Amino acid sequence: MRDVTIGIIGCGNISAAYLRGAAASRLVRVKSVADLRPEASQARAAEFAVEATSIDRLLADPEIEVVLNLTVPQAHVPVGLDVLSAGKHLYAEKPLGTTVAGGRQLLAKAEAAGLRIGCAPDTFMGGGHQACRRAIDTGLIGTPVAGHAAIQTRGMEHWHPDPTFFFKPGGGPVLDMGPYYVTQLVNMLGPVKSVMAQGSSGYAARVIGSGAKAGQEITVEVPTTVNAILLFESGANITLSHSWDVWAHRRLPFEIYGTEGSLLVPDPNYFGGTPEFTRRNGAWEPLDITAQPFGANNMQHPLTGIALANYRIIGLLDMAAGIALGRPHRASGTLALHVLEVLEAIGLAAVEQRAVMIESRCDRPTPVPQGQDETVLWQ
Ligand SMILES: NC(=O)c1ccc[n+]([C@@H]2O[C@H](COP(=O)([O-])OP(=O)(O)OC[C@H]3O[C@@H](n4cnc5c(N)ncnc54)[C@H](O)[C@@H]3O)[C@@H](O)[C@H]2O)c1
After folding, report:
1. What is the bridge-based pairing of β-strands 51-52 and 28-34?
2. Do the Cβ atoms of 58 and 3 come closer than 8 Å?
C-alpha cells in the first residue's frame, strides 16, 4: 500500500465529508484544495490542515495524481476536461455531467490520454448495499422481476445554503438523487434497456431557508416530480418516483421483488442501514451486513440526529488502489455514463411522451470483498 496524493477542486458543502474521509484513510493524502471562491478553499484548508491554492497551481502540481472535482454539476464537465488536460486522473461528484454528450467527452478524453475517471455515488459499495447485492447474487429472493425506488421530500432549499443549482437545468430530483438509486439498481440488476416517464413542477418558485441568501427566491426551471418506469435488460420492471414536492409520506423508499421473496434496500444516499427480506410471503427478516466493510454507523444526520454510515470517498480509494494494482475500479466512468444516460432518457421520455431506448451498456461492478476496513480494496 502507498498513499496517493490528491487535490480537490470545489470547497462547498460536500467537501467536508470527503476531507474527513481522506483524513481517516491510509490510501490517500489531500495535498491542496482550490475553488473559484478563494475564501471557500481557505476555510476548508484551515479546517483540515491542508494547503489552499489556485485552480491553475493545483492542476500544474506534479505531486498530485488524482483530482477530486466537487464543483456544482454544471461545472463537472469543463473542470473535468481541464483535469484530464493536465494529465491527472479524475474522480467527480455525481452526476458525471449534466448531459450524456458532456459525459462522453470526458470518457473519450480520458481514454485517449490513458487516464482514469471515477464518479460518485460510491454508496453502492457500502455495507448495506453490498449485502443486498450478495443476497440477489446468491438467489435469496429468486430472480428479481419488479420493484420501486422512491425519494420524496420537500426539496433542498430549506437546508442547503446555496440551493439555486438544484432548480436549474442540470438540477432537479432525477439528476440530483437519481444517481444514488439508479447506480444501486444497476449494481443489483445490471444495465437498463429502456425508460418511460412523466414530469411536473409542484411550485413555480422556492425560497432559500438558511445561510447568507435566506429569503431569496429561486425560479424553478426543472420538473420537481418525476415518475418513471425502468425496464432492465434482465427483464426487471422498476418504477422510480423522485419528487421534491412532498411534505410527508409513509412509503417505503426502495424495494426489489423477486420470484422467491422480496428485499428492502436501505437508503442509497448512505452506506449502511439494515436491509430486510422475506422468503415468499414469510415474515420480514433483517439481513446481516456486518461481514461487509463500510456499513457501520459513523455519523449523525445534522438535521434529524439519526445515526448513519457515511464513507464518501471509498470510490476514489478504490480507484487509487485500482491504478496502483492495475485492476478496474468500481465507481467507474462507464457506470456513471450509463446511469447518466438513463437519467437523461427519463427527462426526454417525459418531454416527448415516448419510451426511450438506452444505447450504452455496462457490466455490474465487482462486489466489494468482505472484511472490516479499507484494506479490502487492496486486492
Ligand atoms: N451537499 C450535499 O450533501 C451533496 C451530497 C452528495 C453529493 N453532492 C454533489 O457534490 C457537488 C457539490 O455540491 P455542494 O453541495 O458541495 O455544492 P456547493 O454549491 O456547496 O459547493 C460547490 C463549490 O464549487 C465551487 N465551484 C463552482 N464552479 C466552480 C468551478 N468552475 N471551478 C472551481 N470551483 C467551482 C463553488 O464556488 C462552491 O464552493 C454537486 O455535484 C452535488 O450534486 C452534494
Report:
1. parallel
2. no
What average pLDDT score do residues 46-50 get? 97
Hey, which of 33, 56, 72 would you mutate to test ligand 1's pocket, going by the most ligand atoms within 8 Å of its Cβ? 72
Residue nearest to atom 15 of ligand 1 (CA): 13
What is the percent of the chain where pLDDT is above 90? 96
Model-wide pTM > 0.90: yes
Instruction: Say whether pLDDT at 357 is over 80.
Output: yes
CB distance 203 to 172 below 8 Å:
no
CB 228 within 8 A of CB 342: no
pLDDT for residue 170: 85
Q: What is the CATH number of domain 126-305+333-357?
A: 3.30.360.10
The answer to whether the CB of 33 is under 6 A from ligand 1 is no
Cα–Cα distance, 219 to 152 (Å, whole number): 20
Which pLDDT band, with edges at 50, 70 and 90, does 314 fall under? very high
C-alpha cell at 70: 466537487
Q: Is the CB of 14 under 6 A from ligand 1?
A: yes
The answer to whether domain 4-119 has CATH 3.30.450.40 is no
Q: Would you list the domain boundaries of the chain?
A: 4-119, 126-305+333-357
- CA-to-CA separations, 35 to 16, 44, 68, 70, 140, in angstroms, rounded: 14, 10, 12, 9, 47
Query: Over the stretch 105-132, which tens digit does the pLDDT of each residue have?
Result: 999 999 999 999 999 999 999 999 999 9
- What integer pLDDT is reported at residue 2 of this predicted model? 63
Measured in Å, residue 73 CA sits from the centre of ligand 1 at: 7
DSSP H or E segment with residue 243:
strand 237-243
CA-nearest residue, atom 40 of ligand 1: 72
For residue 157, CA distances in Å to 76, 88, 181, 207, 356 come to 21, 34, 21, 7, 31
Residue 25: the pLDDT is 94
Residue 163 three-state SS:
helix
Q: Please state, as a whole number, how many other Cβ atoms lie within 10 Å of the Cβ of residue 328.
A: 14
Ligand 1 in reach of 161 Cβ (< 6 A) = no
Q: How far is CA 305 from the centre of its chain?
A: 22
